Amino acid sequence: MKVIHVLGARPNFIKAAPLIKAMNKSLDVENIILHTGQHYDKNMSEQFFDDLNIPKPDINLGLGGGSHATQTAKIMMGCEEVFDKHNPKLVVVYGDVNSCVAATLVASKLGIPIAHIESGLRSLDRTMPEEINRIVTDNLSDYLFTTCVDGVYNLVLEGVDEDKIFLVGNTMIDSLVEFEDKFINKREKEYALVTLHRPFTVDSKSRLIEMMDSLMEISVDIECVFPIHPRTKNTLVKNNLYDRYKSRILMTEPLGYINFMSLQKYAKFIITDSGGIQEESSYFNVPCLTVRDNTERPVTCNDGTNKLIGTDYKNIPNEVKNINFNKKSSIDLWDGKASDRIVNVFKDIIL
Ligand code: UD1
Ligand code: UDP
Q1: Mean pLDDT within 280-288
Q2: Contacts from 67-70 at CB under 8 Å and sequence distance 24+?
Q3: Residues 36, 54: Cα–Cα separation, whole Å
């Protein structure tokens, strides 16, 4: 019996790793890893397979980037061929990236059951491509695994049958727990960690300048370490901005999982627009300032160490001064065992 796991982008690898391992250990199924190639640089893809100890992809479609329509369409065509050939009993999709929604559309039309890991998150902001991907994926999925209780509420409000919803916790935190012993502080001085990659934050030259100027101001008091996503680097380089900031802000290439998580665990605070980092920083009890107007992960603000500070980037230095370093996280089911719970559901119901 075959199960195809569809992975495409950096966060997918982290969310899928523990589940694939748990399924390999406890279920009598053939797990096939299909990598769409949405992320393709070594430090955005292969390094994660090495760091997280995931078996190499069985199939890599090598499809890369493109406009949303082009990328989604290419991935759909690639998935259709693979699904037709292998006729899987189940397709597992992760998160909210284009690879996830493309695989879901294909599997649903072929009548293949779909399990969505990290279901039910909603920012209620349809200008974000991820929100559209979440809505479509959840609507078409058969087994919806949520990380937190507000994910369950969102799905119920949208009319999803409660029998399809399983509150299991967060597989991204499973990876963190599995590898936490390897996260080591290699820096002598205190530092802030920065990551930015949302189109709204980094595609506009003027907004990115405003952001980088704020980081320069913060870096007077504390070193800012900034592993740069390729999308962000493209805007900096295209607009001749990279050199302007590199003397004061420590800009690095994207980092592999172990190196990045080591930096995250020991950071004094974090400035980010990432989804996953809002969650991981809460587990680490590291204060996180999220430079967005909304979040699909409100649990990290209510029960974790995250704070939404909006998109007026001039305010960031002031927000840094007001960080509450005493806030502590308490999020139910983020305990390293979400994948085991998913496997139990698969045992009982699906496979
Ligand atoms: C994608 C996801 C986003 C997720 C992010 C995680 C969608 C719509 N977006 O955004 O939800 O938060 O991944 O990091 O699925 N590029 C490279 N090398 C790579 C990968 C990308 O150079 O290995 C460059 C390419 O120029 C590409 C651009 O980055 O066109 C954007 O990549 P893409 O995968 O389309 O979107 P992300 O911004 O990475
Ligand atoms: N990450 C990493 N190296 C980096 C930046 C991020 O290993 O240089 C990890 C980190 O664990 C993060 C995850 O990749 O939670 C997801 O990355 P990203 O922020 O790109 O995606 P999102 O969660 O916003 O979809």
Answers
A1: 98
A2: 68/98, 68/129
A3: 16
pLDDT mean across residues, the chain: 97
Ligand 1 lining (C-beta closer than 6 Å): 9-11, 38-41, 44, 65, 71, 96-98, 129-130, 197, 229-231, 234
Contact yes or no for 171/15 (Cβ under 8 A): yes
Nearest residue to 164 via CA among 137, 134, 142, 136 = 142
Question: Residue 121 corresponds to which tokens in the numbers above?
Answer: 């998150």
Alpha helices per DSSP H over the chain: 10-26, 46-51, 68-86, 98-109, 129-140, 149-157, 171-179, 199-202, 205-218, 230-238, 242-246, 257-265, 276-284, 299-302, 316-321, 338-345
Which pLDDT tens digit goes with each residue over 236-262? 999 999 999 999 999 999 999 999 999
Angle at 62 between CA 61 and CA 63, to 5 degrees: 90
**Do 266 and 189 touch, CB atoms closer than 8 A?**
no
Q: What is the pLDDT, as a whole number, of residue 348?
A: 85
Q: What is the SS3 string spanning 154-223?
A: HHHHCCCCHHHEEECCCHHHHHHHHHHHHCCCCCCCCEEEEECCCHHHHCCHHHHHHHHHHHHHHCCCCE
Determine if ligand 2 sits within 6 Å of the CB of residue 194.
Answer: no
What digits encode the pLDDT tens for the residues 61-72?
999 989 999 999
With a cut of 80, say whether residue 350 has pLDDT above it: no
* Known catalytic residue at 197: yes
Indicate the pTM of the whole model: 0.98
Overall average pLDDT of the 39-64 stretch: 97
Residues 286-310: what's their mean pLDDT? 98
Give the bridge partners for 117, in sequence order: 94, 145
Nearest ligand, CA 15: 2
Regarding beta strands 191-195 and 269-272, do their DSSP bridges make them parallel or antiparallel, or are they unpaired?
parallel
Q: Write the pLDDT tens digit of every residue in 135-173.
A: 999 999 999 999 999 999 999 999 999 999 999 999 999
Question: Bridge partners of 30?
Answer: 2
